[in-house]
Specification:
homodimer; 360 residues; alpha/beta; Aspartate Aminotransferase, domain 2; Aspartate Aminotransferase, domain 1; 3-stranded antiparallel sheet; globular
């Protein structure tokens, strides 16, 4: 086996090699501190430099003005499924949810378990979530609209965000954050588990429009309140320093090596386009998501039989391609091609897929 | 400056150098996977090996039988301040809390903010928390007794745990977990943020006696329920893989290099004894915690004046000793000497302290 494989895992996922190399090189002595980044105090100029640089880079990349907080919260997107309703729905008013798959369904469940009044205003469950609903009847009096922008398991993605009028969107962007430029004008909050486009598992980035803090009640536990994180620059308690440091380096890579989100988008479209084109022109592989709803991040596809899918995944591993098995809840195959994945990995994968088809 | 300093930070804190070196060496290709540990799927044999080995090592070190779950939860000890009352106090019954300093006070606050019925049965606030209360009048009908076993900021520690009769203890052991053998017979739950004795920041280990799960209500959010973590081996959602991996290596180091918790205890007593003996025999330095209540993990002390303390901390840094400033809420000086700190670091510190005294 080669030293490094092509990693198509859905998350935790591939990271840019230069980022990994920088972490490795500085691992015993971070920035001349005489300590590993894992040993440096979070109340030190070293770590202040890390977290503040990460925040500034996010603000530059997404063109955020001072209306927004950039926060780092533990517990992944799953914790946000709980925190968003807890923080924003304390006054009896309702939120609209769009159900586009497994993760939306979980977000809905965690609101309902708290007895929060929510309305599911659209769902693509009728066709096993293979498309993104259009012309959604949003409620004008909703506190917010909850969306999952990209659906890792079903391989679908909002091509453009819907028009929610004056109602702010709260969007789970765990699997497509920072993969393309974003119009923030209708967005109240974004949250994104780090382990796909941004870094290792262990932190969730939350971008919060400040006026939404007015909704947060006083009588909720400190660690579940967005106000705590906003007031303490995400350091009410010890943050996951190593994870945030890695994110800082990935952000630097997006900004300085790739050249920003327009370039990132071009690169991601080229990658996904190459793979979908190959699949669509093959009679052997078949994409599962509807055209117009296809994810640029998670390309889901089937082979003519489950047996062939099994052999495909097994032979792929032998040939240095990891993570191509579909999610256990849906089967099939999936190539997750987040920001760090290069076009070289896609080209190599297409070559392998051609070879596999030929001899099958 | 030398490549590596003596790191006396209170947390995040020093890690064993062999652990850091192993992480560094395998950082681009973990266990022949062709991926970094930060890129490996949590649903893979590689990560199963990591988390299950970590759990088994904790069980062996603490001699835990099958009554206990070993869980990994995000959000640090601060999240446990919220979760323990939420999970265990849903039926109207009360818990006893012992207040021994900043962290106990925060745990009490997070129970009160949820309107949970609790009783503070003892406090050392009358003497600025410089001692551990004795002969505490516990309530026989309490659901649990909450303690902070070691007080990082005030430099105190329970020398032995109190007798709570049939009431299980729930103990915040963030700063002395795995530093000595432990009699688990009266313990219902231990929780410990990793970033002092166990690993990097970003995860809290929770050791939970299974019968306490009977108290957990169904109608709480999944990410706040101990049942979720117990039922899914801490992998309901993506866990902080890198942090757990580092903990696994630290546990291996405690077990295989140090030789277990009796040896760890001997080593920690030698370290703390050397430092306290020197301080007690000096007319210049003065320990702040009462004899009998002194922490083996955080040695807090004062110099004759605040000006001298400032110079001491500054000169220490110049000489390669980091983290000796006391917590911002109490001032003074503090040497945090958790498991990874070696006796060499203590001897070097004592030499420096002698020199500083001589010329002051």
């Amino acid at each position: 086996m080669k030293d490094r494989i092509h990693n198509f895992n859905a998350g935790p996922a591939a990271l840019p090699l230069p980022v990994l190399e920088e972490i490795k090189d500085s691992f015993l002595n971070f920035a001349g501190s005489g300590m590993s980044i894992t040993e440096v105090s979070h109340r030190s100029p070293w770590f202040d430099g890390v977290i503040n640089d990460a925040i500034e880079r996010v603000k530059r990349l997404l063109k955020l003005d001072d209306q927004y907080h950039v926060l780092f919260v533990q517990g992944g997107a799953s914790m946000q499924f709980c925190m968003a309703p807890l923080n924003f729905l304390s006054d009896g008013r309702s939120a609209d949810f769009v159900n586009t798959g497994t993760w939306s369904t979980k977000a809905i469940k965690e609101a309902e378990i708290q007895n929060k009044p929510i309305k599911v205003v659209a769902s693509s469950e009728d066709k096993n979530f293979c498309y993104i609903p259009q012309n959604i009847p949003f409620n004008k009096d909703a506190v917010y609209v909850h969306l999952t922008s990209n659906n890792t398991i079903k391989g679908t993605q909002f091509e453009t965000l819907p028009d929610t009028g004056d109602v702010p969107m709260v969007i789970d962007m765990s699997s497509d954050v920072l993969s393309r430029p974003l119009d923030m004008s209708k967005i109240g909050m974004i949250y994104a588990g780090a382990q796909k486009n941004m870094g290792p598992a262990g932190v969730c980035m939350v971008i919060l429009r400040k006026d939404l803090l007015d909704l947060v009640p006083d009588n909720i536990p400190s660690m579940l309140s967005y106000a705590t994180f906003a007031n303490k620059n995400s350091m009410f308690n010890t943050p996951p320093c190593f994870t945030i440091y890695t994110i800082q380096l990935v952000l630097k890579w997006i900004e300085e090596t790739i050249g920003g989100l327009e370039k990132m988008d071009e690169r991601n479209r080229e990658k996904a386009g190459t793979l979908y084109d190959f699949i669509d022109n093959s009679g052997f592989y078949k994409a599962t998501a509807d055209i117009g709803s296809r994810s640029l991040m998670n390309v889901t596809f089937r082979l003519p039989s489950e047996d062939l899918e099994k052999s495909f995944v097994a032979e792929a591993i032998e040939n240095g391609f990891g993570g191509l098995k579909g999610h256990r809840s849906v089967g099939g195959c999936r190539a997750s091609i987040y920001n760090p994945t290069g076009i070289d990995a896609i080209n190599d994968l297409v070559s392998f897929m051609k070879e596999f088809e030929k001899k099958s």
